[in-house]
Write the structure tokens for this entry.
Amino acid sequence: MGNSICPLCYSMNCVEKPVYARFLNFRDYQKLLSCRDCSHMWRYPSVSEDRKLNDRYELEKGIVTYGAFSIQNADAVPVRNMARVSRYVFPGAKILDFGAGNGAFLDYCRRLGHDTWGVEIEIEKIPAHLQEYVKPDIHHFDCAFDVVHMNHVLEHIQEPREILLEIQKRMNPDAVLLIEVPNEIYSATSCMKRILHRKSNSATSLYEHDHYFTPKSLKKLLENLHFNHVFVSTLYDNGNFMIARKILSFLGYGGLIFSACRK
Ligand SMILES: [Zn+2]
């Protein structure tokens, strides 16, 4: 990923966005680049290439890892994800949870009797009884899946386009791909959070993400990769002011970007 070519659409019509970078609490040496063609934004240098970032990450690992995810919601997440996935699951369907994390959703699916597999680079986070179903990368799978689930994964992957192509090769005809990513640039709630709690949110944006998708950039990416029936919308996350959140989501300013498409 160079610093002047869009990693999603390969356009060279890219500019730096210093104001947004400040808004995301980037450090001075970190750049936020934006594609004028597909509206995608991404970090340069990437998380994996950023030496200074990784040194700090090692120092503050505990705080960041547990600060970014709410432990009390751990049980609610698989149920919420299943509600979304279940409409596409048929008897005998093969499910892939790409970016399986701690294996909670994979475990939940398997306990419901679904033939579910996972990809997780930090395979040590997966409980021992599930490790035989999880591989460290997609190349270990030569089978085809009917449903692929990617929940808050794509924004962490340095080359999302290449990974999606590998996933696509392993999808059955008409299989479904479900993606959720944060709407960090245009989300009204993330704007509010950053203004109100600048400090506590700085860790999240400093360490975690290579890509800042917009509804438009995600849709264009999936269409360029020839996925069919591409649906993209923004969603609200749970919290107060639900009516306001629903209105903002309808207008494209929800905290999350959700996409469903078929091969
Ligand atoms: Zn682009």
